[in-house]
Amino acid sequence: MAHAKIDITIDRNDVRVNETFQLTINVEDPETLSAQQSMDFLPSELQVLSSQHFQKSTVIDKQFANQMGWTLTLISSQAGTYSIPKFRIGNEESEAITIRILPAISNLDELNPNSKVKMTARISDDEVYVQQQIIYTVRIYSSVPSRRHYLEPLNVNNAIVKKLGDASEFQMMNQGVRYNVKEEKYVIFPQQSGELSIPPMQFRTNIVDTQASFGSLSRYRPIELQSKPFTVQVKPKPDSAEIPWIPAKALELTAQWQEGVDSFEVGKPATLDFYIKGVALLPEQLPTIEFPEITGLKIYRDKPILQSRINANGVNSYHLEKLAIIPNQAGEVTIPALKIPYWDTTKDVQAFAELKPVTISIKDKVNTIALPSITQQQPQAVSENSMPEAAQPSYWQYLTYGFAALWLATLLLFLFRKRNPAVVTQSLQKSPAQKKPSESIKLKALAQESDPKDFANALLQWYSHASQSSFTNLNQIINQCNHQELAHELSKLQTALYANTANAGQSNDWDGLKIHSLLSSIDFKKVKADRKSHLPPLYPE
Fold first, then answer.
1. Interstrand relation of 220-226 and 230-235 (parallel, antiparallel or unpaired)
2. What is the DSSP secondary structure assignment for residue 361, as one 8-state letter?
3. Does 244 sit behind a cis peptide bond, omega within 30 degrees of 0 on the bond before it?
4. Distance between CA 456 and CA 452 in Å, rounded?
C-alpha cells in the first residue's frame, strides 16, 4: 500500500547561525494532523522555538484544496549541513531533505555600534559577464520597536533590476541582543560591459526614543540609514562564445507529446509540447527556436508563452510552445536533434542544451468506410423434373417483381421526406463545429506568410465551409459581414490582391494573423440565425 506524501519546505535558503527560520510540514490526511507528533526526526543541532498547526482551504485552478500541517520555528547555534531523514506521521511518509546553516555574521556589532537599527547589503558576484545575473541582498536589523518603515527601491543605471518576491522577516541573536530582521532581495542584469555602479540604498524609520521624557509629545524619533555602494566589473561576451549569447547557470530543452498521442497517421494532427527552461535568465533572454523543414511532416507553431518564477536563487524563465504536427506521408520520419549554445556562468565555459532526435512511425490514412464483401455464388443445378414447367417463374416475371419493389420503395421514401424534410438535409450538411482542425491550422499558417493570394483562397474556402454558404470573392464576405473591424481588415487584403507589383511593398499592410483572430471569434450559428430572422416575408402584405 502506497503512503500519502508529507511535503517539507523552509522559508529561505541562506540561513545563518542564530537566525530563526520556519520549517513547514504539509500533510494530506486530516487524521495525520490529529496524530501524536514527535520531533525526534529533527537533528539535535536544530532547536525548536515554537510549533503550531494550521488547516485552511484554498482555491487552486478553480478547485478547492485543503492545506494542513505544522509550522516549526527553528534556530541553530552551529554552522553545518544537517539532514532530516525520512519519517512517518500516522499513515504518511516524507522524503529526506538537507538544511545548510551558514556561519553567523561577525561584524554586525561594528556597524553603527551605538545604533539600535543596523543595515547591511551584499552582492553575489563582483565580476560578471554582460547580461549575467547578480543577486543583491539588503537586511535591516532592529533591536527596538519601530514604525513607518521606508526602504527606497534599488535603481541601477545600464541594468535591468527586479525584486525577488516579498521581503522575509525573522529573528536573530547577536552578542546577546535579539534583532528583528527584514531581508529583501533583487536581481541585477547589467546591459553593457565596463564598471557597473550600484548606489547605496536609503532606509528611514521611527524608533522608540529611550531618552525621551515621560511627558514628551512623541516617544519616537526618526532615523535614516544608508547601505554601502558596490562596483561590479562587467566583462564583454567572450570572443569564443557562440551566437546567441545566453549567459545562464543552466539551459534545458524538453519536448513531450500530449496525452492521447500514441500513434501517427497521415493527415491526423498531433500536438507536441515544447519547453525551454533558463536558470538565472530573464524571459526575454530565452532564444527563439527555428525548426527545420522535415520531409513527411508539416509543423504549425502556436504563439509561445513566456513565464518566469522568482525564488531566493534568482529568476528561472520558461518558454512554452505548442506545435501542431501533421504527417503528409507514411513511413518512418525523424525529427532532428536540437542544439542551443549558452555560456555556463558557473563553470565559465561554452555549453549546449540538447534535445535528442525522435523517430516516429506514420501509418497511411485509414479508410473508415467499410465496403461489403462480395462472394460469388455458384448457380445450383436444378433437375428438369424437379418442378413443373408451368410453375417455374420466367425471366420477365422476376423483372416485373423487381420494378414493383423499386416503385414501392420510391413511394415510401417520398412520403418520409415530405413528413421530415429537415432530417435528410441535416444529415447531409456538415456543421461548422465539424470543420477539420487542419483547415484552421492551415489558414493560420498562411496568415504568417506574405502571399495575399494563397491566404485569400484559403480564407474563402474556410469561410464558405464555416458559414455553410458559397463565397467566391472577398467582396461578398465584406458586404454581408456585420463585423466592422473584420470588414476593414478584409478591405486591406482586397487592396493587396489588386495592388501593382511595384507598389506592393509600400501599400501592402494587410494583417493575416489579425484576420484569423477576428474570424475565430465569429459565432456562425448566431450569424445564421440573425440572417434568417431578417429575411423578408414570403407573402408581403
1. unpaired
2. E
3. yes
4. 6
